[in-house]
Sequence to fold (297 residues):
Amino acid sequence: MEWKGIIPAMTTPFGPDLTVDHDFLARHARWLVDSGCKGIVALGSLGEGATLDFEEKLEVLRTCATALRGQAPLVAGISSLSTAEAIRLAMKAAEAGCEGLMVLPPYVYSTDWREMKAHIEAILRATGLSCMLYNNPVSYQTDFTPEQIRELAEEHPNLHAVKESSADVRRIAAIRALIDGRLAILVGVDDLIVEGVQAGAVGWIAGLANALPKESVALFDLACCNDMEKAFGLYRWFLPLLRMDTVPKFVQLIKLVQQDVGMGSARVRPPRLELVGRELEEAKATIRAALENRPVL
Fold:
């Protein structure tokens, strides 16, 4: 698959009983692609993958694959408490119709490079699917250095991309300096997208695109065209929302934006809880201010 453009990390919708709402899931996937997104990533951190059991994950992938009908690639986030389960999920993702895998570290175990490399390699070898390594040291306490990324890329021909979420734009240049052209670099932090594209990123695993895909596509395209005056004008408007992707309650916040634009609900699975009180009021004030000044594209 081609790791370029905006590929949203899609949220997982829940009904009132907190079971997966597959009807809305299918509509949401199609809406994102129809709005200009180049594919979908399911079961990532924003997709609350850690709160879904194994069979629920497979059903989410099957629903998305059916909804997309081959019009855009489906990528499965692969993470688990154990290497064996991660391998099994990767293999089932291939059977479900996924075209790519987003490979994450184990949920709770941060370790040395020997053990972490063995875990990642086991997933890379599990299928022939195109793979993207997910580097998010803030959330997973594992930092894949540029040198380690180069090592994996040199040894595994199906590793084609890296989602860089360290929030350090210098990492993009550091990876390119070691293996420029070998891997596609995608931004994984919403409020770093313009800087990331300028540094050489070719894609965006976007969060706020779940609620505002057309604005996300427009911003990415302007950055890619190096039309910085127009890009920054749109960026300035978007930043208060994009920053919601970079805080611990990013899932609750992004789902709240979806609800306020009429494309989803704020429901989340425990241990997450919906926002209340002052926290909710402040978030809704930020969203309201942005939507009242929503640009005409």
Remarks:
- DSSP finds twelve helices and eight strands in the chain.
- The longest helix spans residues 277-292.
- The beta strands are 5-6, 40-42, 74-78, 100-103, 130-135, 159-164, 184-187, 203-204.
- The mean pLDDT is 97.
